[in-house]
Design brief:
With 257 residues, the protein is an alpha/beta fold. It is built from eight helices and 14 strands. Strand 10 (139-142), helix 4 and strand 11 (155-158) form a beta-alpha-beta unit.
């Protein structure tokens, strides 16, 4: 039985299975495996890998390992553009469409608040998430590494933070969303698009007092929910303003760093 030695770099060390506490890990092989299978056996989804070296040669995930090799596993680089040489770096779609697992309900609402097409189902099971991601070319955001390792998930991303507002900031920075935001243009409940409505056409269904204090109303073209400005709107605008200030100040965009 021969061994393959893995050297794990950067923040990938923070997402390995807890049983692997060292940066350098030896795995014993009793058969041939692809480097992808072995990297994911360490708890690292393939979408998190920016570059792979096998015996100092740049390789892709299909490279077979027989034992005796030394593998270097690098995260997605923030300060070096390796797209011209990497064989593993994930190319995400230009259109930012998302699908989120059951644990990310608040993040789903926040992404919709920013205007991004975001699918979320409380009872959405793993097979549905993976199939929908593949069929519609959606980026799958998840806290579940095993879900992101499914072969039919084209665009996986492992969310690091457990705090919804930090998850939002993380997602905005990872996918460079600042310039593509259309705040308050999408229904936070069902993901439908909002269209402005004439107040006179909806007077009969507005709560008492709302018509007197508001002139601008929007209605979801899917579920029919009506939106207007209120204290909740101010809270959302504060979240958006904080995102803009922080991202512009720090230049946080992984593709541009």
């Amino acid at each position: 039985m021969r061994e393959v030695v893995f050297r794990i770099y950067g923040d990938l060390n923070g997402i390995k299975w807890k049983r692997f506490t060292e940066r350098e890990i030896s795995l014993r092989l009793n058969s041939t495996h692809s480097v992808k299978d072995l990297v994911e056996s360490l708890g690292i989804p393939h979408g998190e890998v920016g570059m792979l070296l096998v015996d100092d040669e740049i390789e892709d995930f299909d490279r077979k390992l027989y034992g005796g090799e030394r593998v270097s596993v690098y995260p997605v680089f923030r300060s070096i553009d390796v797209r011209s040489v990497s064989k593993t770096l994930m190319e995400y779609p230009q259109e930012a469409k998302f699908i989120l697992d059951v644990h990310l309900g608040k993040l789903a609402k926040y992404l919709r608040m920013l205007g991004f097409d975001t699918l979320y189902e409380v009872d959405g099971e793993d097979f549905w998430l993976a199939d929908k991601s593949e069929a519609e070319g959606r980026i799958l955001l998840s806290l579940d590494r095993e879900l992101l390792m499914r072969k039919n998930v084209p665009y996986p991303y492992l969310v690091r933070s457990r705090d919804p507002l930090e998850q939002l900031r993380e997602t905005v920075e990872k996918f460079c969303l600042i310039e593509r935001m259309e705040p308050l243009s999408r229904c936070m409940v069902c993901n439908g698009k909002l269209k402005q409505m004439e107040k006179e056409k909806i007077l009969g269904i507005l709560p008492e007092g709302v018509a007197e204090t508001n002139e601008i109303f929007k209605r979801c073209d899917s579920c029919g929910k009506i939106y207007w400005s209120g204290t909740h709107t101010e809270g959302m605008k504060n979240i958006i303003d904080n995102l803009l200030k922080t991202s512009v100040k720090d230049g946080r965009c992984m593709e541009d760093e």
